[in-house]
Amino acid sequence: SSARGINGGGYIAPNNTNTMQYITIATTGNGADFGDLTAIRNTPGAVASSTRGIWMGGTGPSPSNTALNTIDYATISTLGNAADFGDLINNHRADSAAGNSTRGLRLGQQQSPAVGNTIEYITIASAGNSTDFGDLVATNYAGRSTSSTTRSILGGNTTSGQQNVIQYVTIASTGNAQDFGDLTVGRYDLSAVSSNTRGVFAGGVSASAYE
Question: Is the pLDDT reported for residue 111 higher than 80?
Answer without folding.
Answer: no
